[in-house]
Amino acid sequence: MTEIKLPRRDFLKAAGAAGVAGAAATTGIAACSPETQTAANASAAAPDTYLVLTNEEVAFLSAAVDTIIPADALSPSGTDCGCVVFIDGQLGGAYGGGAKMYRAGPYMKGTPEQGYQLPLTPHQFFVAGIRAANAWSEKTYGKLYDRLTPAERAEALTAWEKGVAQFDGFESRLFFQRLLQITMEGFFADPIYGGNRNKASWRMLGYPGLPATYADKVEEYRDKPIVVTEPLSIADFS
Amino acid sequence: MVTKLNEVDAVVIGVGMTGAMIAKEFTLAGLTVVGLERGPDRRPREESVLPRIRDELKYVQRLELMQDNSIDTVTFRNNSEQTALPIRRWGAFLPGEGVGGTLNHWGGMHWRYLPTDFRIRSTITERYGAGAIPGDMTIADWPVSYDELEPYYDKFDKMCGVAGKAGNLRGQKIAGGNIFEGARSDEYPTPALKPSGGAVLFTQACNNLGHHPFPAPFGAASQPYKNIYGIQLGACEYCGFCGRNSCEANSKVTAPTHIMPALRDEAKFTLRTNAFVSKLVYDRQAKKVTSVLYTDMNTGEEYEQPAGIVILSGYVFTNSNMLFHSGIGEPYDARTGRGVVGKNYCYQFEATATAFFEDKNLNPFMGSPGDRAVIDDFNGENFDHSGLDFLGGGYIRGGSGAEPPIGGRAVPADVPSWGSEWKKETVRWYYHAVEFQNQGSVYANRANYLDVDPIYKDALGRPLIRLTYNATKNDHAMSRYMLTKIDAIIKEMNPTHYELHPRPLNFTIVPYQSTHNTGGTMMGTTPANSVVNRYQQSWAAHNLFIMGASTFPQQHGYNPTGTVGALAYFASDKIVKDYVKNPGPLVQA
Fold first, then answer.
1. Minimal CA separation from A11 to chain B, in Å
2. CATH number, domain with residue B569
């Protein structure tokens, strides 16, 4: 694997961002509250500045999460559900900085059975991965990923998912898997983290959320769905 | 600079479930005990409360309660020819950290092993002849019988408030319970949980096929319960957040809820958290551990704690690694088969399946792992292996529920993983999936073991432990057979669609499979075939006792916790009654 160069300013931003992660979470809660925001205009509440994501990264991720979670009758788009804000908060926080991750070398590729062996933290992984994906997009389509048509975006995502796209110095399939995972986390996690605005995914599924005390309901609702009118989240109990 | 502390009667390394149990039993017997826990304290009244506890991202995805890989991890390879690489973030298994240890986030499946499991080599030999056990299968009889352990299983059940239904009460078989289990001296402390919708379907199908289904025994009280330490516990809420999380209801068994309230204020007990033990100081001549060295992870300062009795109650990997670092016992050599420390590492081999029922509403978020139904007809020696190409087996369970939304959205395999079609199919199947699992045994193989990694180091500069492990031919043959049984049960349930998930050829360190690692400090009958004797006492140092599944000779077709708990009470009883008065080997070598 060739060396992946990371711009120093991103490291510095990442290091300084952990302390303000709480502020992003607060923004997320406000955006999710049905009183202040509906799903339809949720994107208007997106913060003007991000903790760690650059403009290019925000543009890329917006296009990607809207391809993974398109707006349709079942839910608003990934962006409108706050997935990019969620990803920014995760990559700018302890998780993105590689907390609780064994990072010592030497680094070897290993077998697929041996799992993730890159020296990159999750934040560094997405910085390098987005750069590689955009470079591939420019080479393949002559445009950055966010400038592609919806059909091209889907086609590109499929090429990454299958691992047939050759990124420079990066495994496209691994990048896809991580992108899909963090997008799904943003879509389905409690809204306290800035994604799942207005509990859109929970409404879609019919997931009631909290308090999740069902001892008296297991028998009553056996083979009978619970009717979920308003799912409740952590903020609703705080 | 190492600060030497005053000697105490006993030091406990790792205040997880067994460490807390032993500390409690020792203080009841009047001994002074220091508990050294490398992780933080866990305070259920502060941490395991609504609404913060219902956070799937934090606990299930980001692994809040797990051991910090940056401080200490495990290196892994499939075979001795490969270079082992570090597990950089947990995947296949999830060791915990902090007071309560790995049991803080367990799923609660609470089992006893079969009487035949404890003498498995003898049973197989008697039934199928001396040649039935392959040469590379290093299984061994346990040096303790089911009957000897039964009173301690019973005590552990009553400490936990286990929910379940007996199938063999003092020899009397009871329909609706597990008729294959060893005789119990008493009924479960609390009744079985109410079955999930999926468990009801599974039970009907198993009855139709002539199997013997019963409710899964669960390590949580199904109704308010006062345990043997006088602690009032709550009833299971069927919240669906058991796995990888602690319990808001004080129902699921953990040391912080079930033991610490009766231990924390004990004058003879001292708890030191963030105390990372690096080494046991071993006196080879005296065959004793004289003290333990630990680093205070708040200050970085090093301490030496002398003690009369040393309890090593870390997770499976910690226990073997501590012996390697301390030069206690002969390390296992896979080429020659000599040596014992690191030998007979085993895992759990879990084939699974998913069935979808379009016309059933199964409320996937509701419930607990304990509302599954189980059959034990194809476990261990409960069935005849004549003519079969494998030994071993495992229970099969089925049910629905306890699936929070980030990780728990089963869809058929041909559904796309993103886009509008994925969304449509996710919604279509969300309420309709039933999960099946075989808790497959892993019979030890000479090629699977633990030793010292030659390259990678932990935060204290010690070598990491190295895991060399792969699934065997026997494991795969067993698992294929179990899948035919699961297949027949599912067909009887008549689903809209279903999928069997056979195990991949090679064991892989991702994704999550099971935290049932066993072995490395196995028990046995002589110093030549084992690390500890039946009382979990080290052959090499008579005041060293090792707790946890690291002492299992092999892994049978059940979750290990029930047996881990019974062994801890069995050992502590012997130590308190005999060892304290007469320190020395409890079994003559």
1. 19
2. 3.50.50.60
